[in-house]
Amino acid sequence: MKNVKTDRIIRASMALLTVALVYVIYIAMHERIVVAGDDAPGFTVKTDSGQTVSLPNFGGKVMVLNFWASWCPPCVQETPSLSAFATAYRAKGVVVLGISVDKDEKAYRGFLEKFQPGFLTVRENTIHEDYGTFMYPESYIIDAKGRVVKKIVDPQDWPGNPARFSDWTDPQFLTYIDALL
Fold first, then answer.
1. Residue 37 lies in a domain
2. Does residue 154 lie in a domain region?
3. Alpha helix locations (H) across the chain?
4. Whole-angstrom Cα Rg for the chain
5. How many CB atoms lie within 10 A of CB 38?
6. Nearest to 181 by CA among 120, 118, 98, 94
7. How far, CA to CA in Å, does 99 sit from each of 14, 136, 170, 176?
8. Do 152 and 174 reside in the same domain of the chain?
9. pLDDT digit string (tens) for 119-162?
10. Do 4 and 101 form a contact (C-beta atoms < 8 A)?
11. Are both 148 and 120 inside the same structural domain?
């Protein structure tokens, strides 16, 4: 009789501890994921071109923060349109910063040499964690106050984009950006 009661207490305690552990993990994961409306986590990086970029003082009206990797096919696909967007909107005060999460510097340098992105780039392996980004590409549109106004996880995150990759020159997207300036 005593063993049955002890066994029930142990099982109930284990169940309670399991629920508590799952809850703590859930809360920890959701605190780290940045979404539209959140303040963008601050950072300072020195880009490959030698320019220092930091939040909130990034010198523009809008920042497009793009996390990518050389081994990511959608990242490769979107690079030409992101370059075209960066070139077209640079004079309007938009800063495009591509942060590569590549661990292999040779792969990173090979990507830059092959695609010659028209935006600021840096290889950095911790900032993506502050944003809760672990799938690529993932981008954040950040306003001049340092607030995330849009998070783009999937090409379908802006209306009218039937592409399987992000087309940064899509007219509806450009209208959205123009409204932020």
1. no
2. yes
3. 2-31, 73-90, 105-115, 127-131, 171-180
4. 21
5. 17
6. 94
7. 43, 11, 22, 23
8. yes
9. 999 999 999 989 988 889 999 999 988 999 999 886 555 555 55
10. no
11. yes
Could you report the per-residue pLDDT of 42-97, keeping only the tens digit for each?
A: 999 999 999 888 887 777 789 999 999 999 998 999 999 999 999 999 999 999 99
Q: How far apart are CA 94 and CA 120, in angstroms?
A: 11
Give SS3 for 163. coil
Under 8 Å between Cβ of 68 and 137: yes
> What single letter denotes the amino acid at residue 71?
W
Both 52 and 140 in a single domain? yes
Round to whole Å and give the CA distance between 94 and 44: 17
Helices (H) and strands (E) in the chain, counts: 5, 7
Query: Which residue from 148, 101, 132 is spatially nearest to 140, judged by alpha carbons?
Result: 148
Number of domains the chain contains:
2
Q: Do the Cβ atoms of 79 and 69 come closer than 8 Å?
A: no
Question: Using CB atoms within 10 A of its CB, is residue 161 exposed (0-12), middle (13-18) or buried (19+)?
Answer: middle
| Residue 139 structure tokens | 């981008």
Q: Is 142 left (phi over 0), alpha (psi -120 to 50) or beta?
A: beta
Question: What span, in angstroms and rounded, lies between the C-alpha atoms of 123 and 9?
Answer: 52
